[in-house]
Amino acid sequence: MNVSANDLAGLKVMVIDDSKTIRRTAETLLKKEGCEVLTAVDGFEALAKISDQKPAIIFVDIMMPRLDGYQTCALIKNNPQFRATPVIMLSSKDGLFDKARGRIVGAEQYLTKPFTRDELLGAIHRHVSTVSNH
Fewer CB atoms near the end CB (10 Å): N or C, the chain? Predict the structure, then answer.
């Protein structure tokens, strides 16, 4: 996939994961592409930041304490202001059940961890319509 260096410049991307390693990996990859990266360790922290920062796309881990990825996604999708914001589920399991459950709560896509740079950027290009002209 040939992605020009700055077509993602300034795009706000949120990564919600209780793993510091995953947050850091995603943040490093995305910042290289010029994205503005917001991170949160769980759904509660994320929801406060989402209403404040209004990211263009949200990556959320499924397995998190307090509020898991499914609950977080459902809360985002139940808010009329953020219903159209694409949510990509992240999971270390590649199960059909998890993918189906992700679709039920309104997730746009499901990525298996560890994800690659191309998978991460591919998801953004697939779901953020303003990427090439924002």
Answer: N
Query: Within a 10 A sphere around the Cβ of 122, how many other Cβ atoms?
Result: 16
Largest CA distance in the chain: 39
Question: What residue ranges do the domains of the chain occupy?
Answer: 20-127
Mean pLDDT estimate for the chain: 91
Summarize the confidence of residues 2-18 as an average pLDDT: 82
How far is it, in rounded angstroms, from Cα 117 to Cα 68? 24
Q: How far apart are CA 95 and CA 61, in angstroms?
A: 14
Residue spans of alpha helices (H) in 20-59? 20-32, 43-53
- Mean local confidence (pLDDT), 110-122: 94
Residues 21-47 have a mean pLDDT of: 96
How many CB atoms lie under 10 A from the CB of residue 17?
25
Cβ(20)–Cβ(30) below 8 Å: no
- Which residues 6+ apart lie within 8 Å of 9 measured at CB? 33, 34, 35
